[in-house]
Amino acid sequence: MGDPRKQRKKYNTPRHPWEAERIKEERELMKEYGLKNKKEVWKMNSMLKHIKKQTKDLISRRGTPKAEEDEKMFLAKLAKLNLINAGAKIEDVLDLHIKDVLERRLQTQMIRKGLAKTIKQARQFIVHGHVMVNGKKIDVPSYIVSSKEENTIEFSPKSALADEEHPERSNKQVVQEEAKDKEGGEE
User: Fold this and answer.
1) pLDDT at residue 187 in the model
2) Which of 43, 61, 106, 107 has the smallest CB count inside 10 Å?
3) Does an H or E element contain 153, and which?
4) Quick one: DSSP state of residue 162?
5) What is the pLDDT of residues 76-92, one digit of tens each?
6) Alpha-carbon torsion (80, 127, 44, 103), positive or negative
7) Rounded to whole angstroms, what are the CA distances from 146 to 80, 95, 149, 165?
8) Which CATH number fits domain 106-186: 3.40.50.620, 3.10.290.10, 3.20.20.70, 3.30.70.1560?
9) Residues in CB range of 169: below 8 A, 6 or more apart
């Protein structure tokens, strides 16, 4: 459609700026998922609200000729993003939470795969251009990784981090041992 005349934000801010409960939840999410600021929480929350709005619209249109086809396409899209299971019903989409969406971010996926020691380090690797997904360099930590792309996350061949012996690169075994030590220490 051409070049947009005005860039528009892709998120909605909270209705009330000083809700203690919401602020506490946002801080916990920022810490757990290594988010830079609350704007990133709001973007993911807006994405989730948009998905739920589409779901409610599809549920209300049941019985119309095109509704069943649209419903199948929508569920296939969410299954491709690995937000729901392949055999899920449209009502299951309403059970999604913001943590489900945050788990699909590239930054989080790097930690889950053991390619970085900490969530902040994963963000740094991505922003500095060391990470490739499906053969393409991605420098956006909030990139939503689809189920097909999940196994193609790797370090760029030109990056020094591509070498497994690099001191900043974590080994999956070390990450798993640290997780076991944390679980044992908490009990």
Assistant:
1) 44
2) 61
3) strand 153-155
4) G
5) 999 999 999 988 999 99
6) positive
7) 6, 19, 5, 29
8) 3.10.290.10
9) 115, 155, 161, 163
Q: What percent of the residues of the chain are helix, what percent strand, and what percent coil, each to the nearest 5?
A: 55, 5, 40
Nearest to 20 by CA among 28, 9, 12, 11: 28
Residue-wise pLDDT tens digits, 157-178:
999 999 888 888 756 555 556 5
C-alpha distance from residue 101 to each of 123, 136, 137, 146 (Å): 17, 22, 22, 11
State how far the alpha carbon of 173 is from the alpha carbons of 27, 44, 78, 113, 185, in Å.
30, 31, 32, 11, 18
**Backbone CA torsion sign across 170, 176, 178, 182:** positive
Structure tokens at 132: 């490739």
Range list for CATH 3.10.290.10 in the chain: 106-186
DSSP 64: S
Helix (H) or strand (E) holding 67: helix 67-80
Tell me the DSSP string of 7-37: ---SS---SSTT-HHHHHHHHHHHHHHT-SS
The pTM (predicted TM-score) of the whole model is: 0.84
